[in-house]
Design goal:
Length: 207
């Protein structure tokens, strides 16, 4: 059908074009997948039948983890679906049912992806879990801001964080901002990190 081919071409260029597609094409798997490939949030405009279909949602998530935002609430509460989403895009954690933000397996899978700032969405209990926070700061040092106070004072963990992003020093415990080894590691990663060191070390290590 000529119209179908035109819509397929349109959504492949701009996923949001699915919004103005005929209803029958908003329920067409190939068309919707093409739209999602161009823009994961285009799944918002897909037919409810597709957004409620676990089989189709898993296909969509293989293309873009962002599509989880517009899956049905039932599927956002399905662990298999959520794991598929965060394996593709760590930030999809924000669109999962709240219980998954306290699910160590799901959060570690999201952190391993290294994008979308999943540490921002994890439960307070996991902000105090050393294994989880270490995995997070190894991928995104600035995620140290979401760690518990005790972990912000964990020198080994903070060294990992500032080694990944020197300016993560901003979120370290005050004692570690005055620790020469930590500050040198941060400065080596990013000269700008020195501004987060203690006044004394700024004087010692500064220009």
């Amino acid at each position: 059908m000529a119209d179908r081919e035109a819509v397929l071409a349109a959504v492949s260029e701009d996923g949001q074009a699915l919004f103005v597609a005929p209803e029958e094409l908003q329920a067409d798997e190939e068309v919707v997948l093409a739209a999602i490939a161009a823009d994961g949030s285009a799944f918002e405009h897909a037919a409810d039948s597709l957004r409620c279909s676990k089989e189709f949602v898993l296909k969509a998530l293989a293309v873009s983890g962002e599509a989880l935002e517009f899956a049905s609430a039932k599927l956002q509460a399905d662990k298999e679906v959520v794991l598929a989403a965060v394996a593709q895009y760590g930030g999809a954690l924000q669109h999962a049912s709240e219980a998954f933000c306290d699910d160590k397996e799901v959060v570690l899978a999201a952190l391993a992806q290294g994008d979308g700032n999943p540490m921002r969405y994890m439960a307070e209990s996991l902000q105090a879990d050393r294994e989880v926070v270490l995995a997070g700061v190894a991928m995104d040092g600035a995620g140290l801001r979401y760690a518990s106070a005790d972990l912000k004072a964990d020198k080994e963990l903070v060294l990992v964080a500032v080694g990944q992003d020197g300016c993560a020093l901003e979120y370290a415990a005050e004692a570690l901002q005055a620790d020469e080894e930590v500050v040198r590691a941060a400065k080596e990663n990013d000269e700008e990190a020195l501004k987060f060191a203690s006044a004394e070390l700024q004087g010692v290590l500064g220009p």
